Amino acid sequence: MRAPARDKKPVDPIIWQADSVLWYSRELARHLSAQRFASYVGRFNYGNMDVSGEPGKSNGLSHAWITSIGFGLYASKNYLARHPVREDQSPIAGHRLITWGDPLTFLALPKTLRSWVESGIANLTVDSMQAQVLAMKAGNGLGVLPCILADAEDQLVRIKPDLCRQEEAIWLVIHEAVRDTKRIRVVCDFLESVVKQGQPALSGQAA
Predict the structure, then answer these.
(1) Model pLDDT, residue 151
(2) Which pLDDT score is estimated for 127?
(3) Predicted confidence band at 24 (pLDDT cuts at 50, 70, 90)?
(4) pLDDT band at 157, cuts 50/70/90?
(5) How far is the CA of 206 from the CAs of 128, 156, 201, 202, in angstroms?
(6) What are 142's strand-pairing partners?
(7) In the prediction, which pLDDT does 48 show?
């Protein structure tokens, strides 16, 4: 199964929704069948309701969303020089953590951080990704960041990428009243093409 190590475990609907387990979403879609899946998406007016997938690949059940964005566990080089992470330790224990305030608690990521790091000390609570990057670059602790954001920072190091990796689906949401408007479709097609071209970086798999 191609999935982050943290997701290679028994998953039920409660765990699926709480942890945003992407592979479970794809398997559920496959079991529904293409016709039923498209019917539900249309009835719910969900996203852009495009379940065609990638051209010529017949993968609408697993690639109806635009792409996925990858998150990883990061720390600054300075912090890791002072507080090394043991390679044989999982979950990681005894480190300072940079956590989220209320504006970001709707994400599955705070729970993801707790699954990767146990018995850590919440050293700082922030309410934006920008503040988190600055705090981590200053050596204040470990934190979860989008790979496309953190990988561009020379001062940040990704920790245990095979184990500490989370994916979140990216959907393009369009208001029902304008979804068939030509200018809206042009913009949507452009955004989808840009996002798909940047998929390796978004997913955290860029070379």
Answers:
(1) 92
(2) 79
(3) confident
(4) very high
(5) 24, 16, 5, 8
(6) 97
(7) 53
Burial class (CB within 10 angstroms; exposed 0-12, middle 13-18, buried 19+) of 150? buried
3-state secondary structure labels for all residues of the chain:
CCCCHHHCCCCCHHHHHHHCCHHHHHHHHHHHCHHHHHHHHHHCCCCCCCCCCCCCCCCCCCCCCCEEEEEEEEEEHHHHHHCCCCCCCCCEECCEEEEECHHHCCCCHHHHHHHHEECCEEEEEECCHHHHHHHHHCCCCEEEEEHHHHCCCCCEEEECCCCCEEEEEECCCCCCCCCCCHHHHHHHHHHHHHHHHCHHHHHCCCC
**C-alpha to C-alpha distances, 38 to 23, 42, 53, nearest whole angstrom:** 18, 6, 11
Question: What is the rounded CA–CA span in Å between residue 47 and residue 51?
Answer: 10
**pLDDT tens digit string along 112-139?**
777 777 766 777 788 788 888 999 999 9
Task: Determine the length of the chain.
Answer: 207
Cα distance between residue 68 and residue 113, in whole Å: 18
Pairing relationship of beta strands 156-159 and 67-76 according to DSSP bridges: antiparallel
Q: Which two tokens stand for residue 180?
A: 């068939």
Residue with tokens 């007016």: 45
pLDDT tens, residue by residue, 48-105: 566 665 556 565 555 556 677 888 899 999 999 999 988 777 668 788 888 776 555 5
